[in-house]
Amino acid sequence: MASEPPAPRPSTPSPVDPLSLVRDHTVYSCVMGSRAFRLATDGSDTDRRGVFLAPTPLFWRFEKPPTHVEGPAQEQFGWELERFCALALRANPNILECLHSPLVEYADAVGRELRALRGAFLSRLAHETFARYAVGQRRKLEADVRRYGAPRWKHAMHLLRLLTSSRDLLRTGILTVDVGAQREPLLAVKRGEVSWSEVERWMARLAAEAEEARAGSPLPSEPDHARVEDFLIRVRRESALRECAGAGA
Predict the structure, then answer these.
(1) How far apart are CA 81 and CA 117, in angstroms?
(2) What is the pLDDT of residue 6?
(3) Which of 51, 130, 125 is nearest to 85 (CA)?
(4) N or C terminus: which one in the chain shows less Cβ crowding within 10 Å?
(5) Residues 136 and 178 in one domain
(6) Euclidean distance between CA atoms 243 and 7, whole angstroms
């Protein structure tokens, strides 16, 4: 009896190239950091942040696409859409500020819808996450003061900026990235022209004002999970249909 031919081996899918996800599938990108905050000086870097949409069929494999990618350019960092939304729903300060950057460099239809959805991510959870982040940064500054006699003034400036943003968000329900009229006072801190004791008092005042604003904040107690999830499911479905149609063409 003739033996049956061996069953064909399943082809091994090629590994996902993280950088190609950023190059080919970015839906939203912006400039963040000092340039977005309007605190840039001559030596400031240009920090780019973005969101990419990994094609849905990649999630059907054992090897999943990455949740974030560094590069391809210097000072560039991107998140996969689902990871970005999950962090935004938790009121991650860096993610929320990315959605509210005044310096948008690219947005396709998905990116524009994501940015239009930014209000759905805002809630009073921001008080806890911003405050927790601020406490961690404050401890680092205090350690520098104990060790070197002075903080890293640039970091002190950015902590004051974050505390101001948190207070104003809780007061108004609007997250503002541009520091506006606070530019010069904050840059004076960066230059070391303000004493550490004065900076400490400034930080304490902002933290107290944020705490006071929390009770009467116009923000909802929780973000709109359902609205964000509906968006994500629809985008994933459209991606799957598009990729499958392309494979069958």
Answers:
(1) 13
(2) 52
(3) 51
(4) N
(5) yes
(6) 28
